[in-house]
Amino acid sequence: MIPYANVRGNSPVIGYEIEPYRIIVWFKGSKPYSYSYNRAGVRNVEEMKRLAQSGAGLSAFITRNVRYLYD
Q1: Angle at the Cα of 35 (from 32 to 36), degrees rounded to 5?
Q2: What is d(CA 50, CA 58) in angstroms, rounded to the nearest whole number?
Q3: Please, which of 26, 27, 28, 44 could form a disulfide with 15 given CB 3.0 to 4.6 Å?
Q4: If we measure between CA atoms, which residue out of 19, 63, 21, 12 comes closest to residue 39?
Q5: Closest CA to 70 of 23, 4, 21, 11
Q6: How far apart are CA 23 and CA 35, in angstroms?
Q7: Rounded to an integer, what distance in angstroms lies between the CA atom of residue 20 and that of residue 30?
């Protein structure tokens, strides 16, 4: 797991792991959630990877776009 930078300081995301066709996201006090191309879509997963690496906006994106599309 790579620690999430949490640039804005208010994210419940604590870490992530990037794989070729998915991203796994860890939230405070929760289990990891896997978002794959198959379930969440290529465009969404690639945007989540970008946001994870930038350290800002990942949780908001998940809430707005892929909230229940985890594997």
Answers
A1: 135
A2: 9
A3: 26
A4: 21
A5: 23
A6: 5
A7: 24
